[in-house]
Structures are given as structure tokens and as C-alpha cells.
UniProtKB/TrEMBL annotation:
Protein name as annotated: Glucosidase 2 subunit beta
Coiled coil: 156-183, 376-403
Compositionally biased residues, Acidic residues: 309-340
Organism of derivation: Crenichthys baileyi
Matching InterPro entries: EF_Hand_1_Ca_BS (IPR018247), EF_hand_dom (IPR002048), Gtb1-like (IPR039794), LDL_receptor-like_sf (IPR036055), Man6P_isomerase_rcpt-bd_dom_sf (IPR009011), MRH_dom (IPR044865), PRKCSH (IPR036607), PRKCSH_N (IPR028146)
Domain MRH stretches: 419-520
Region (Disordered): 234-267, 282-367
Domain EF-hand: 213-248
SUPFAM superfamilies associated with the record: Mannose 6-phosphate receptor domain
Signal peptide (residue range): 1-18
GO cellular component: glucosidase II complex
Entry's Gene Ontology BP terms: liver development; N-glycan processing
One Pfam entry name: PRKCSH_1
Keywords: Coiled coil, Disulfide bond, Endoplasmic reticulum, Signal
């Protein structure tokens, strides 16, 4: 009979004696008071009241299925297995007597003929072992945590002491930097003046060189134009140089040529000087490409050099003038001598640029200027070095202050994670967690690292805020949010990342084990689930 099948159980388990509590089949202990044998039964949803003999009569009367806790009659009913020795459970009442053993105490199959074995004690034993293991880990983890707290305390004191020292050395360095700044500035003023003097002398010298070159070229052009060698350049002679045509209209007329000659028929060398400016820009040598006057390094320059040497001290040695051009061509032809050394025709229209280059590099500084430069440079180096040391000390202070004020948990138990990194390699990526700093992901087979977020905050639930870390503002996700990572901490003896996943795109989840999260274990007695409901 189904109707009044009551449990009558007597179990001895885990040293505790348990006694039977009578109630209809499938009813949990917590609801026993609603099923009183000598009173009508009111459906648990209050919808109707029925005589008690309709409870578990294999006919569904209550819409919530509460009149058939021990049969499969109601589609929405729940069957309660006591599972003595293990853990009570509810199963959908459709599974009652369906031939499959669902409850470890076999009570769901009381009328199906299924050959169920009671496995509750075995399950209970296994669970107990599991719980014991967890408790053991928690215990050891908690011991480690206590150690970590001690170390963090010591570490904090050390850091505070270090901060004091570094702050003192910062003061010393600041004074040093200021003193060296004065030394540097004092040395730089005469250095600047001496360099300016030297530059000015070089500028003046270059102007002289250019002028001499221009003169030499003028003389050579005069000779070239004076075809009949009568000592003057005539209108006709000038006309032979069509490139000089002022309006470049294709006809270089007599009057145009005369205009260039200052309105006269011909000019001698002296008068040529006064009209040279009208000619020199456009003039193209007849002896192109080799004989335009004066290509770099040609004889006029030689003269120039002599002039320079005459005019000046050894400060401006001869070699300085053509040196740069030598350098440029050296690679092409080491054998090239000065005779071969001609400016390419293209450069002739670009007289200015050519001239700028022709004077070569600035001559070396005289001894006195060089000594001032060396002195100032030494002062600069010393100043820079002191400034660098000051910056380093300031960095150190910033880092120490940051570390000292960081929230490393209620007793600084998480401080040991600072400046550490932990990796986990999956099929595709190497994940890296650097606590309180950043999380990243790097493809295993090459490719650049992607930031999955930088330290944001502790983000656990209110009553356990230190159980979750949040890293945010990582690399932007294509058409998505910036990457971010949640790190869930669980208690363990080791410090290790145990898993990573991406529950939604670009939002990562890491499981991280650390002793710092272990709680003081509740005193462990039987290790068995507290209440054994019968
Ligand atoms: C990369 C990785 C993945 C991420 C996609 C999003 O492939 O960072 O984790 O889902 O980008 O485009």
C-alpha cells in the first residue's frame, strides 16, 4: 500500500544515533507538520483541503502536487529522499518508481522492482574525505596566511624605514643639483660667448671665401667671354651666350646685351666688375661640363684658399675648405685628384647651395674656446648625472609610497603578490597575472601581447570583498568593450592561476589560488554534514 507507508528507520552513523520520524513518503522533515494523519490535508498552496487518505493515493488533487509527495501522480511534484548517511535531496516526482535509482537510499524506487543499492554511506564517506581534505588545505593555508601577514608587517616597516632614508637622500640630492646647476650655468656663459665669437669669425671668413671665389669666377668668365682677347667684352661677345637673354624670349638682342653691359658697347675688366651681377646668375660656361668657372676645388678655389691662409691664422687651415666634397666622392673613386674634381653641371644653377657647402665644416675651436667647452660639458655631465640620480630617487619614493598605501587586504596578507607574476598556458595563449598591476594574454605561437586590464579594485561581495580582483581598461575589443578580467581567489597552499576563461567576449575570468584568502577553519569534529534528517 502506498498511502500509509511511513519510514521507520534506525541508523547508526558517524557515532551518532538517529531515530525515526514518521511522515508520509516523500515528505521532508521540514514539512512534516503539514501532513497530520488524523486531520484533513490542505494543499501547501492553500488551494483546497482534502481528506488525509487522499495523500499519496496516486491521484493528483493539489495543483502544486503537494498531496502526492511520494508518488509520480503529480507532474510538478517533488519527492524527498532522506539519504541517511549522505545528504537529503529532492527529485522530480516523475522519477519515482521509474526504474532508475535516483536516491542513494533507494527510496524513490520502492515499487518498481529496480534493483537499487543503498550507496549513501559510501557517498557520505567520500564526501567526508573530500571535506577533510579541504579542511586540511584550509588549515595549512591559514597557517601560511599567518606567516604572510607577519612578513607583510615586517615588509611594511622596512619600506617605511627605506622611505625615510630615500627622502633624506632626496634632500641632499636636491641641494647637489642646485649647486651643480649654478656651476653649470657659470661655465656655460663664457662657453656660449666663446662659441659665438668663433662662429662669427667663421661666418666672416666664409664671406671672404665667397667673395674671393666670386672674383675668381668673374675673372674666368671675363676671359671666356672675351673671344677676341682684346681685353674687353663686347655686346656681340655677350650675345653669344643666349642663356643671358633677360626675357628668355628666344632672341637675345643687341640692346638687351647692351643693357646687361650697363648701356655701353663693351666693358673692360674694371667695368665688367660693375655689370658682373647682371651676368653671373645665368651665365653657363662654354666649357661645360668640365670648365665652368669656378667649379668646386678648381684653381680659383686654390687661390681663395691661399687668400684665406694669408688673411687668417692657422685656425682656418687649407684642408678645411674642400674637405667635405672630398668625403662625398671618396667612395666612388679613391684615385680622383683635384684636377678631376668638378661640380656636376646641374649644380651650377644652384650656386647658393653649392657655395654654402663649399666652405667645408667649421674649423675646430681654438684651445681656449675648447677648454671652456670642455669645462662646461663636464659641468653639464655632472649636473645631468645628479639630476638623473634625483629622478631615480623620486621614482623610488613614488613607488614606495604607492606600495605602502596599497590595500593589500585587512592584514596586508596579499602584499606578497605585489611585483609578482603568475602564468597559465592554455591551448592558444599564455595568460599572465601580475597582481595589483596587470593581466595579459599572449598568443602561444607568436604575436603581440594583449592587455586584459590593469589593476582596478577589490570586487568581491560586500561580506567578502577581498575574494575577487577586478582588472579593467585593457586593450579595446573590436566592436566591443575594453578588455577586463575578474580574478576569483580561492584558498590553497600554493599561489597559482588554475584556470582562465572568457565567459563573454573580451571579459575574462581567472581562478587564482592563494593562501592569503584562507579563513581560519571552524574546529573540525566529525567532518560529517551536521544534520542527518530522517
Ligand atoms: C583576441 C583575443 C580573444 C578575444 C578576441 C576578440 O583574439 O583577445 O580573447 O575574444 O580577440 O576579438
Amino acid at each position: 500500500m502506498v498511502k500509509f507507508s511511513h519510514f521507520v528507520l534506525l541508523l547508526l552513523f558517524g557515532g551518532a544515533m538517529t531515530v525515526e520520524v514518521q511522515r508520509p513518503r516523500g515528505v521532508p522533515l521540514s514539512k512534516r507538520q503539514f501532513y497530520e494523519e488524523d486531520k484533513p490535508f490542505t494543499c501547501l498552496d492553500g488551494s483546497r483541503t482534502i481528506p488525509f487518505d487522499r495523500v499519496n493515493d496516486d491521484y493528483c488533487d493539489c495543483p502544486d502536487g503537494s498531496d502526492e509527495p511520494g508518488t509520480a501522480a503529480c507532474p510538478n511534484g517533488n519527492f524527498h529522499c532522506t539519504n541517511a548517511g549522505f545528504r537529503p535531496a529532492f527529485i522530480p516526482s516523475s522519477r519515482v518508481n521509474d526504474g532508475i535509482c535516483d536516491c542513494c537510499d533507494t527510496t524513490d524506487e520502492y515499487n518498481s522492482g529496480a534493483d537499487c543499492q543503498n550507496t549513501c554511506r559510501e557517498l557520505g564517506r567520500k564526501e567526508k574525505e573530500e571535506l577533510q581534505k579541504i579542511a586540511e588545505i584550509a588549515k595549512e593555508g591559514f597557517m601560511l596566511k599567518k606567516q604572510l601577514i607577519q612578513e607583510a608587517k615586517q615588509g611594511l616597516e622596512d619600506k617605511k624605514a627605506k622611505l625615510g632614508d630615500v627622502q633624506d637622500s632626496k634632500k641632499d640630492l636636491e641641494a647637489k643639483v642646485e649647486a651643480l646647476r649654478t656651476v653649470k650655468e657659470t661655465a656655460e656663459q663664457p662657453e656660449k660667448e666663446a662659441k659665438e665669437r668663433h662662429l662669427k669669425a667663421w661666418e666672416d671668413q666664409k664671406a671672404v671665401i665667397r667673395m674671393e671665389k666670386d672674383k675668381a669666377r668673374m675673372a674666368a668668365v671675363f676671359l671666356e667671354l672675351d673671344d677676341d682677347a682684346d681685353g674687353s667684352v663686347s655686346v656681340a661677345e655677350l650675345q653669344s651666350h643666349s642663356e643671358l637673354d633677360p626675357d628668355s624670349d628666344g632672341s637675345f638682342t643687341e640692346s638687351e646685351a647692351q643693357g646687361l653691359l650697363g648701356g655701353v658697347e663693351k666693358v673692360d675688366t674694371v667695368a665688367f666688375e660693375t655689370v658682373w651681377n647682371n651676368i653671373k646668375e645665368k651665365y653657363v660656361s662654354e666649357n661645360q661640363p668640365n670648365a665652368d668657372v669656378p667649379p668646386a676645388g678648381e684653381s680659383p678655389q686654390e687661390e681663395t684658399r691661399d687668400t684665406v691662409s694669408d688673411n687668417d691664422s692657422e685656425n682656418y687651415p687649407d684642408e678645411d675648405i674642400p674637405e667635405e666634397e672630398d668625403d662625398e666622392d671618396e667612395e666612388e673613386d679613391d684615385e680622383m685628384d683635384e684636377e678631376d674634381y668638378k661640380a656636376p653641371p646641374a649644380m651650377q644653377t644652384d650656386e647658393k647651395t653649392k657655395d654654402d657647402d663649399e666652405e667645408g665644416p667649421m674649423p675646430p675651436y681654438d684651445q681656449e674656446t675648447q677648454a671652456l667647452i670642455d669645462g662646461a660639458q663636464k659641468a653639464r655631465d655632472e649636473f645631468n648625472e645628479a639630476e638623473k640620480a634625483l629622478r631615480e630617487v623620486e621614482d623610488q619614493i613614488r613607488n614606495l609610497e604607492k606600495e605602502i598605501s596599497f590595500d593589500f587586504g585587512p592584514s596586508s596578507e596579499f602584499a606578497y603578490l605585489y611585483s609578482q607574476c603568475y602564468e597559465l598556458t592554455t591551448g592558444e595563449y599564455v595568460y599572465r597575472l601580475c597582481p595589483f598591476n596587470r593581466v595579459s594574454q599572449k598568443p602561444k605561437f607568436g604575436g603581440s601581447e594583449t592587455s586584459l586590464g590593469t589593476w582596478g579594485k577589490w570586487a568581491g561581495p560586500e561580506d567578502n570583498i577581498y575574494s575577487v580582483m577586478k582588472y579593467e581598461h585593457g586593450t579595446g575589443c573590436w566592436q566591443g568593450p575594453n578588455r577586463s578580467t575578474i580574478v576569483k581567489l580561492t584558498c590553497g597552499k600554493e599561489t597559482v592561476v588554475t584556470s582562465t576563461s572568457e565567459p563573454s567576449r573580451c571579459e575574462y575570468l581567472m581562478e587564482f589560488i592563494s593562501p592569503a584568502i584562507c579563513q581560519e577553519p571552524a574546529s573540525f569534529d566529525s567532518g560529517h554534514p551536521d544534520h542527518e534528517e530522517l
